Amino acid sequence: MGITENILKRVGLGVNKPSGDQPSTFWSRNRGWLLLTITGALFAAYPFLPFISDYWIDVAFFVGIYALLGLSLNIVLGEVGLFDLGHTAFYAVGAYVTAILNTTLHVPIIVLLPLSALIAAGFAFLVTSPVIHLKGDYLCIVTIGIGEIVRLTMINNPFNLTGGPNGINGIGGPNLFGLAINSSTQFYFYTWIIIGIVVFGLVRLQHSRIGRAWNYIREDETAAEASGVDVRSYKLLAFVLGAALAGIAGNIYASKQMSVSPQSFTFIESSLLFCIVLLGGLGSIPGSILGAAVVVVFPEVFRQFATYRLLFFGLALMLMMIFRPGGMWPRKREGTGLDGLGIRGLPKKDEDLIPLGKPDPAMLKPSTTAVVRGVKLPPVTVVMDEGMLLQTHGATLKFGGLTAVNNFDLNVRTGKITSLIGPNGAGKTTLFNMITGIYKPTSGQIDFLGRDITGLKPHTIISYGIARTFQNIRLFPSLTCIENIMSGPHCHARSGTWAAIMHTIGEVREERDIVATAAYRLDQVGLWKYRNELAKNLPYGKQRYLEIARALATAPHLLILDEPSSGLNDRESEDLMVLLQALVKEGFTLLLIEHDMQVVMGISDWVAVMDMGQKIAEGLPKDIYNNQRVIEAYLGKEDD
Ligand SMILES: Nc1ncnc2c1ncn2[C@@H]1O[C@H](COP(=O)(O)OP(=O)(O)OP(=O)(O)O)[C@@H](O)[C@H]1O
User: Fold this and answer.
1) Residue 183 or 311, more confident
2) Where is the chain membrane-spanning (predicted)?
3) Does pLDDT of 599 surpass 90?
């Protein structure tokens, strides 16, 4: 699907796949191209309209600068949900790099365009790497600090480079293949053509595994990491790309104004950028451009009230939160169909995707070789007991004075269902969290498929072949069901930023594999018809199934389910038992925490019992059922 259709479909203007009985008109077939042509024509005609003066062309130029800044912040704030209130710092770095290198070394502005982006991106990497693990308010405060440090550095004129409070004057203009860009109209076209290219790249990123990974993080960081997303790297990537775009905006701004000074890069500027993204709609590309237009044009139209503009924007944000929380032009996800995913070459009928995702049986056999679905694993170094897929040896985790798991040895046999049971607070979930890398054991070792996985990150462990679900369902609520499941194969895909922007052959193939795997798993758990629904709109029982499907889509050897039947009625629990047994037949190994004894006794091959962090029994279900120690742990010991 073309870039135009992608944009339009995302914002709800595109045409859905014809369902067969809908008449296909010239307009419906070509709406994307027609709207793009009209928009392009309006943009091209704008400076030449009789009532448009140079002043209004300059206003449109500044809308462009703020649109670029809004788009750059939208990556960090809108796509990933990171509160960056110091984004102007990267804008300033781009502007000052341009000013310093152009006025001292006479480097041409056009050469400085990519260089400003690179240096702003490198600066972002350096300053955000140490703080990227911070969340919410904490990150917000640190980014305010970064913004202020940059501004104060410019004022303090280090090495006589930044010109102090007066800044730097005499910056040259860009020269494109011999054409000097200096008039308002030339700058208008120069800026908006760059924005066009940026939008092209951003739309492609949005519709790639990278854009989805950003959204997974925004929706639920823990679930994203546990689904195989390297959260730290993706957050850094967002900051770096966002800073690069802000650096480009800085370069264009400096060359247009021919001067830079610290007054242009204050905290208020960062707040305005925040307003642009929130007003426009988090994660919405057209929204950021619209937000920029409002923020720039409003004070121009109502000049006499310009001093009150922040008051107005504050009020507008409050009203927006109440009446239109998604922003003026929110990103539309549901109802756009599978076409809205922006993946090329999908079958004409959605249903034809399902058989494509049918797994290759060879891949499901527990593998002891060094390659699992293309992911290179380290060599086998640990000798495990015969027939075992996972073993913990003396796994221990202490939370301060509390030993939640104490010296626990768990054995999970390949191709079987092992259940871990025990009273509330026994330490079962904590043990699961150690196995899946959410907690690092205080001591002990965890071996899986002949490798020591103790203390590895969750996204690494999942690529080794261990997937999980959570006791309290953790989905990506504002994404569609199919998008939720597409996070599963993410850890096996390799396409990077460039491949996503260029739609390389490998990337397109990978995307098709991802959506086909997701379609197959969604169908397997009976949720295919909900593929384009937002996950949060599903009933509780179906959300559980969706979470299981997401875990299955990672093609795991071991599937760990934390209380899968909790919240399900008897009928749903029975269906769940059927599904779990079918999964074992398909080749998966299952490890469950379960309180429902009917489920445990009905399907388990082996049961381990935990109480106060320790193993008190293990054996066949019928033996455990009658074990006196287990009965005492659950019911309490009778006094003599
Ligand atoms: N992050 C944490 N910080 C401190 N204590 C914790 C943490 N997570 C769990 N605990 C404590 O560790 C103990 C074991 O908790 P855990 O959730 O593993 O038990 P559980 O067997 O899964 O219980 P349930 O069946 O009720 O879910 C509890 O006393 C709990 O309060």
Assistant:
1) 183
2) 32-49, 55-75, 82-101, 107-127, 187-205, 236-254, 266-299, 305-323
3) no
Please state, in angstroms and rounded to a whole number, the distance separating the CA atoms of residues 90 and 119: 9
Distance of alpha carbon 286 from alpha carbon 592, whole angstroms? 45
**Using a 6 Å cutoff on CB, does residue 634 contact ligand 1?**
no
**Residue 400 alpha carbon, nearest atom of ligand 1:** 4
Point out the ligand 1 atom lying closest to the alpha carbon of residue 610.
21
Indicate the pTM of the whole model.
Answer: 0.89
Ligand 1 contact, 430 CB (< 6 A): yes
**Any atom of ligand 1 within 6 Å of the Cβ of 428:** yes
pLDDT reported for residue 8: 45
Is a pLDDT exceeding 50 seen at residue 12? no
pLDDT at 48 over 80: yes
Indicate whether 17 pLDDT > 70. Answer: no
Give Cβ neighbours of residue 290 (< 8 Å, ≥ 6 apart).
279, 280, 328, 329
- Nearest residue (by CA) to ligand 1, atom 29, is 425
Instruction: Check pocket membership of 424 for ligand 1, CB cut-off 6 A.
Output: yes
User: Is pLDDT of 463 > 90?
Assistant: no
The rounded Å distance from CA 488 to ligand 1 centre is: 27
Query: For 477-490, how does the pLDDT look when each residue is reduced to its tens digit (9 = 90+)?
Result: 999 999 999 999 88
Residues facing residue 152 across a β-bridge: none
pLDDT of residue 22: 52
Rounded to an integer, the average pLDDT of 376-385 is 79
The closest residue, in CA terms, to atom 16 on ligand 1 is: 427
Residue nearest to atom 26 of ligand 1 (CA): 424
Q: Does any ligand 1 atom lie closer than 6 A to the CB of residue 399?
A: yes
Ligand 1 atom, smallest distance to 471 CA = 27
- The first and second tokens of residue 24, run together, are 């296909």
Shortest-distance Cα residue to atom 23 of ligand 1: 425
Closest approach atom of ligand 1 to CA 439 = 1
Check pocket membership of 613 for ligand 1, CB cut-off 6 A.
no
Terminal alpha carbon distance of the chain: 76
Domain boundaries along the sequence of the chain: 57-265, 337-365+478-549, 378-465+556-640
378-465+556-640: CATH topology is: Rossmann fold (3.40.50)
Ligand 1 geometric centre to CA of 224 (Å):
22
* Residues 57, 48: Cα–Cα separation, whole Å: 9
**Cα separations in angstroms, 409 against 405, 447, 500, 524, 616:** 10, 11, 44, 34, 11
Is pLDDT at 108 greater than 80 in this prediction?
yes
- Give tens-digit pLDDT for 213-259: 999 999 999 999 999 999 999 999 999 999 999 999 999 999 999 99
The protein residue with its alpha carbon nearest to ligand 1, atom 11, reads: 404
The pLDDT of residue 130 is: 95
Q: Are strands 466-468 and 558-562 parallel, antiparallel or unpaired?
A: parallel
- Burial category of 452 from C-beta neighbours within 10 Å (exposed 0-12, middle 13-18, buried 19 and up): middle
The pLDDT value recorded for residue 636 is 65
What is the layout of strands, in order, in the sheet containing 443-448?
A: 402-413, 388-399, 443-448, 451-452
3-29 residues labelled b (16+ CB within 10 A) or e (exposed)? bbbbbbbbbeebbeeeeeeeeeeeeee
Of 402, 430, 438, 595, best ligand 1 pocket probe by most atoms within 8 Å of the beta carbon: 430
Question: Does the interface predicted TM-score (ipTM) exceed 0.85?
Answer: yes
Ligand 1 nearest-atom number relative to CA 431: 18
